[in-house]
């Protein structure tokens, strides 16, 4: 069974020689090199409101370097704090 055509083709018309595609939104001519990456990137950057491949806002995002390497309390500090809280409550 052949793969389904990409959704991006609803915004483009392929040329007769199949080496380029014309954007139906702005008439730009995009080179084809075997896939739809160029077409997808054109839609993403030139027509963001037509881009259906945007990640939804509730999707978890990758942590930044600042988040990954943020200072964290050492395990001894955590234990000391827990002991101090225990003594205060006792």
From TrEMBL:
* Highest rank taxon of the organism: Eukaryota
UniProt GO molecular function: DNA binding; zinc ion binding
Q: Which InterPro entries does the annotation name? A: Znf_BED, Znf_C2H2_sf
What Pfam family is a match for this entry?
zf-BED
Q: Which residues form the BED-type domain?
A: 3-54
Keywords linked to the UniProt accession: Metal-binding, Zinc, Zinc-finger
Cross-referenced PROSITE patterns, in alphabetical order?
ZF_BED
Q: Name the SUPFAM superfamilies for this protein.
A: beta-beta-alpha zinc fingers
- What is this protein called in UniProt? BED-type domain-containing protein
């Amino acid at each position: 069974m052949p793969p389904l055509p990409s959704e991006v083709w609803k915004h483009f018309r392929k040329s007769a020689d199949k080496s380029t595609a014309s954007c139906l939104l702005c008439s730009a001519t995009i080179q084809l090199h075997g896939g739809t990456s160029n077409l997808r990137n054109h839609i993403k950057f030139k027509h963001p409101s037509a881009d259906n491949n945007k990640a939804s806002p509730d999707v978890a995002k990758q942590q930044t370097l600042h988040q990954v390497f943020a200072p964290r309390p050492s395990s001894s500090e955590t234990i000391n704090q827990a002991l101090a809280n225990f003594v205060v409550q006792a």
